[in-house]
Amino acid sequence: MGRLREMEMFVRIVEGGSFSAAARDLNMGQPAVSKAIASLEDRLGVRLLVRSTRRLSPTEAGVAFYERALRAIAEANEAVAAAQGAGAGLEGRLRICAPVTFARLHLVPKVGAFLDAHSKLQLELVLDDRSIDLLAENIDAGSRLGVLTD
Predict the structure, then answer these.
(1) Would the CA dihedral through 28, 29, 33, 39 be positive or negative?
(2) Beta bridge pairs of residue 142
(3) Residue-by-residue DSSP string for 34-96
(4) CA-angle at 44, arms to 16 and 53, nearest 5°
(5) Parallel, antiparallel, or unpaired: how do β-strands 56-58 and 49-51 relate?
(6) What are 49-87's pLDDT values in tens digits?
(7) pLDDT tens digits, residue range 108-149?
(8) Do residues 125 and 107 lie in contact, with contact meaning Cβ atoms separated by under 8 Å?
(9) Which has the closest alpha carbon to 18: 56, 69, 49, 63?
């Protein structure tokens, strides 16, 4: 079992006040949760929880572990969100070059919806009928009509 999963289990136990509540939240059996925490305590060499017939509470080491586990879980969740967000949409500047009439008929009518879908994108349309050097003009994408020389 991964360390992060053990931390999530421990946090659920402390917050839920019992192994049974944590097991229900995690959709696991109570014996599996109990065994995982016992294994965690053995590996750490410290008791994290004081168990009695009526109550379950974290030890001093358990409180320290709980606080750090919360931060680790939050950091892991942020890392996942950042990775998922990195590919979620376009952002930055995009320069597109196209002939004037072609752009007016085919590109400009779609620009509004495109920018609505990619709100972080800064779009710059360079409308010109002449054949410009895309590299020299710093153009990201260009549309050409007719016979090309290269």
Answers:
(1) negative
(2) 97
(3) HHHHHHHHHHHTS--EEE-SS-EEE-HHHHHHHHHHHHHHHHHHHHHHHHHHHTTS-EEEEEE
(4) 40
(5) antiparallel
(6) 998 878 889 999 999 999 999 999 999 988 888 887 766
(7) 999 888 888 888 889 999 998 888 888 888 999 988 887 777
(8) yes
(9) 56
